[in-house]
Amino acid sequence: MAKARTISFVGHSGSGKTQLAGALLAKAGVQGEIAFDQSQEERRRGYSIDLSIGACTWKGTRLNLLVTPGLGEFVEEIYKAVDASDLVVLVANAEKPVEVVTEQAWEIRARLGKPALVFVNMLDKPNVDPDKVLSELRDALGAKLWPLQLPVREGGSFLGLYDLLSGKPVAFQGKAEVPPELRSRAEETRGELLEEVATFDDALVEKVLADEPLSAEEIMAALRVGVAEGGIVPVLWGSAQTGQGLEELIEMALALAPEPDGDETTRLRVFSLTIDPYLGRLAYVKVLGGKVGEGNSLFNLRTGEKVQIRDLYNFVGTKLEKTGSAQLGDVVALGKVDGIELGDTLSASPEAEPEPAIPFPKPVFSRAIVPKSQADDEKMSMVLRDLVATKATLGFERDPVTKEAILSGMGDVQLDVLAERLRNRYGVEVEFRVPKIPYRETIKKQATAQYRHKKQTGGRGQFGEVHLRIEPLPRGAGFEFVDETKGGCIPGQFIPGVEKGVREAMQEGILAGYPVVDVKAVVFYGMYHPVDSSELSFKIAARECFKLAAQQAEPTLLEPIMNLSVTTPDAFTGDIISDLNSRRGRILGMDSQGGKTVIKAEVPLAELMSYALDLKSLTQGRATFQMEFARYDYVPAQIQEKVVAQAKAKDEG
Questions:
Q1: Cα–Cα distance between 365 and 409 in angstroms, integer?
Q2: Where are the alpha helices (DSSP H) in 65-200?
Q3: Is pTM, for the whole model, over 0.85?
Q4: Predicted pLDDT of residue 378
Q5: Same-domain status, 43 and 174
């Protein structure tokens, strides 16, 4: 059997990727049910959520099909599929050829440097204008798109295709009649196509100039070079619904997909992880070198640890079957694997270089996740950590300041799907809330204070007197404690108690209960009692002393400031900048990148809690953004007043 080829189907939701892949498997002779969207959440919602995989054999070659979701919030799955692909098929809806994820998927393919072709689906729809479709795709994708076929339509019906490479009608369901005017147009288009293809082979250029005929083999060889270099993108047409054009698609995809090229050393790329309801945690891998079988030991090049290959499953249609071995080019699932993360490289050689990291986007939308019952709390955290570990665009943590459990993703739909999965698979009911902002507190000037803690309740009492000086430190410096006492005014064994008391007070906050940071505390004097003093006495005295000093040191709130990078079509640049200004943003600069603008800004986190939803609304989903923590900075006075008032009201309530 020839080496396997892996082809991914990407494109906007509703372009028919799932139906197309299923029709191709059926055409290749796969028996029984073909189900790409298998999860309960996908079946209920009626669209893809996770990367789906199927496989078949076509004329002696094993063919792996990777089908991606078409909603922008599940963009991670496109990265996974494209990374594992030999060839990317961008599927476009003939009625709406260019949509948000059409462009996003194309950019991801270009970023990962994969060869591609475009398949225009749904040509059986009545209101389709192939020339308009091609024009829109060329404008949007900025690539050299060349149709390899001309659609034959009559009275709103799709009859078939005229193949420009062979000069023959194909994919007709009835009588193959090509109108004379289309034939003459086809000859002209064929000549232009061959001139373009010939540019990838100097010998063919000479033949074209000399008006010598080109053989089918010569044309395909040059086309293969052009596609591999990204200099030409073939366009094919058809309908997954009627089956027209599918055989031509599969033949061309196999002809253009580069042959897997690896040495004899076993090498696997982990491109996706999932938790199967029956098989548990599975790692989807592509064999990039050698072969692999159950019982083999490989090295995880990220950790250096040995990985034992236990259960190995191949795809038969869309089902997994335990086969125990795989060879170069295969896409298989590994079961019972521990310590493996997304993007890992497994190799027989511990000295090998790992594959480059997949450049996944980071999560940009966060919500506090709260179990509906106390009983679900512990279970929720455990299950969430397992689920989140399978996705690069999901994050889960407990905020050390607000103590909330925070779930992060690409948007509200992705988080809702996860909540649904928690309920369906694990019986855990959760709800989402807007997270609290993890404010911090600090001081703006130096201050001193003293406090005596004295308690006498019969028997041994408590006594400790502390004199503190506190002063602000540079932003991000944290906390510094200094002992400047002299002459044993506070015995050395009690100084740790002083530091503990200060740290306790700093955790409790001064203004609104948030931790105090960037402060230097100096204990410079004190008094003790030979019987009644203890570490506890000095801890209490220092805690109260710090509070007194802090009140005089101009206490203030700090808020997290985020570095924001928004990539948008030029048309929305003005609206986005205006919106960022209204969010207390500071524009740092703008760059132009091929019809798009990248806006860099600093914006307070408090103004970005729903930015993923707002930006989608502002730009019809065509802009994307990433953000990361930059620093803490002072909160404006009027906002500080509100935050402090809310905290006091909560304490009183």
A1: 5
A2: 75-84, 100-111, 130-141, 180-198
A3: yes
A4: 81
A5: yes
